[in-house]
Specification:
Layout (H helix, E strand, L loop, with lengths): L4 E2 L3 H14 L3 H14 L17 E2 H5 L3 H11 L5 H16 L8 H7 L1
Antiparallel strand pairs: 1-2
Helix pairs in contact: 1-2, 2-5
Length: 115
């Protein structure tokens, strides 16, 4: 469903890298946290096109890890009508939405307390 190679917007990618500098959490793991944080907040993708211009292009398994099946099922459940490219857009928009609530944390302890 999701393509094998995926990337995010440049601004989201920069926020993930800054979070890594503060907490040590790698961008792929913080992207997973951000995605599920966004899903839990009832944010929904409305078809808005995200400019996926980030330089960090990783394979699907690296981005999603062991959460790949759950991530794809969540996207399929909320957005049954989308195609593969639109699923990537939805995933990227959810990560962008979710990182907003995580990006200001300076320590791993602060992140864990907010989750």
């Amino acid at each position: 469903m999701l393509p094998n190679r995926m990337n995010l917007s440049r601004s989201t990618e920069e926020q993930l890298k800054k979070l890594k500098g503060y907490t040590g959490i790698t961008p792929n793991v913080s992207a997973r946290l951000a995605f599920f944080r966004s899903i839990e907040s009832d944010f929904r993708y409305q078809g808005q096109a995200a400019k996926l211009d980030g330089a960090l292009v990783l394979d699907k398994y690296t981005w999603l890890g062991e959460t790949s099946d759950v991530t794809e099922l969540m996207l399929k459940m909320y957005y049954p009508q989308l195609d593969a490219k639109q699923y990537q857009q939805a995933w990227a928009v959810h990560v962008e939405d979710g990182i907003a609530s995580l990006r200001n944390h300076r320590t791993l302890c602060a992140i864990s307390q907010s989750l």
